[in-house]
């Protein structure tokens, strides 16, 4: 009887340990921020993470995404033209329990506005987030 009890206790311990190991998800948060001024104000920007469309955002908005730990790439296109090219991918490293902030920056090159992604610090992100609204339904217009 004691042997059976010990065996059941050991089995229960092992099952509990294995379930908790599977329930842990190693993720970090990524904020995608668009507060770009007046150029293309009404045009959706399409955000891609690892080549997959994750959000369409208008100006003065941001979205929050949980990503697995490790290296990822973020790029964007303007939604106005179907032939728009993606920006050069920005490589970010997601660390468990930490937050990354990615901002859209717009620069003028002659008569053309160019957009790019730039990783910024929390201190730089906070004033931008205060001016923007969170977008939760990311793939809707």
Summary keywords:
141 residues; single chain; 2 helices; alpha+beta; 9 strands; five-stranded mixed sheet; globular; Immunoglobulin-like
The CATH architecture can be given as Sandwich
- Average predicted confidence as pLDDT: 81
CATH class: Mainly Beta
CATH topology: Immunoglobulin-like
The order of strands across the largest sheet is 8-7-1-4-9
In terms of quaternary structure, what is this?
Answer: single chain
Question: Number of DSSP helices?
Answer: 2
Largest sheet, in brief, is:
5 strands, mixed
Q: Looking at the structure, what is the overall shape?
A: globular
Q: Uncertain regions: pLDDT < 50 for 5+ in a row?
A: 4-21
Terminal Cα span:
65 Å
Please write the string of helix (H) and strand (E) elements.
HEEEEEEEEHE
Number of strands: 9
Tally of individual domains: 1
Give the strand content: 35-45%
Describe this structure in words.
- This protein is an alpha+beta fold.
- The chain has one domain (26-134): Immunoglobulin-like, CATH 2.60.40.
- The protein has helices at residues 2-23, 122-130; strands at residues 27-34, 45-49, 52-57, 61-68, 70-78, 90-94, 99-109, 112-120, 133-134.
- It has a five-stranded mixed beta sheet, covered by helices on one side.
- A hairpin with a 2-residue loop joins strand 7 and strand 8.
- The longest helix is centred in the N-terminal third of the chain and has 22 residues, at 2-23.
- The radius of gyration is 21 Å and the shape is globular.
């Amino acid at each position: 009887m004691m042997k059976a009890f010990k065996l059941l206790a050991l089995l229960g311990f092992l099952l509990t340990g294995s379930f908790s190991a599977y329930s842990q998800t190693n993720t970090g948060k990524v904020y995608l921020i668009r507060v770009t001024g007046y150029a293309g104000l009404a045009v959706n920007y399409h955000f891609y993470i690892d080549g997959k469309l994750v959000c369409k955002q208008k100006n003065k908005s941001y979205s929050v995404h949980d990503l697995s730990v490790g290296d990822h790439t973020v790029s964007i296109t303007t939604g106005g033209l179907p032939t728009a090219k993606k920006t050069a991918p920005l490589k970010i490293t997601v660390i468990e329990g930490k937050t990354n902030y990615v901002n859209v920056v717009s620069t003028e090159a002659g008569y053309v506005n160019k957009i790019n992604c730039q990783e910024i610090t929390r201190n730089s992100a906070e004033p931008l987030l205060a001016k923007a609204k969170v977008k939760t339904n990311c793939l809707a217009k």
